[in-house]
Amino acid sequence: MSHSLRLPRILWGCALLLAGLLFSTQEARSEAPVYRLVIVPTKPQAVPPVVILCPQERVCRERLELFIRDRLRVVWVVTTVRWSYVFVRFLSEAAPLFVGEKPFISIPVGRDHSTLTVVVPSTETLEEGSNPWLWRFRPPGRVVATVDVYIKRLTD
After folding, report:
1. pLDDT tens digits for 28-42?
2. Do 58 and 32 contact (CB within 8 A), yes or no?
3. Secondary structure of residue 29 in the 3-state scheme
4. What values do phi and psi take at 30, rounded to 5?
5. What is the Cα–Cα distance from 149 to 137, expressed in whole angstroms?
6. Which of 6, 7, 142, 148 sits 20 to 30 Å CA-CA off 49?
């Protein structure tokens, strides 16, 4: 009698194990894609490049050193990949930093290379606060660095 009860339990256990394997395999395939961003400062910023591995829908950051106001300063490169864009922002305690005329830049995922200009915005731009329409009419900021950003999708 005990042998007849073991067979259904064994079959039920095997079915659960098989279902678990199928679901875990499905989860592994549905992981978020990972993107590799290589940030390479160009001359006169002779500092080493930074590599950021960032899964989609996550915020990632990496430390970079740039010359700001004639001193080597720590700058955080903050990135996130949303839908079909990579968003890049530079943060520093030494000075507020913009990418061109905006606090951040969005780069289409399909573009494998972009050149960004990192600037310290003018005082007038910072006084305008969060009104990006007025930033275009303010004096340009002081260029800190030009960086090349290379983007590659690592996983599908």
Report:
1. 446 889 999 999 998
2. yes
3. helix
4. -95, 15
5. 27
6. 142
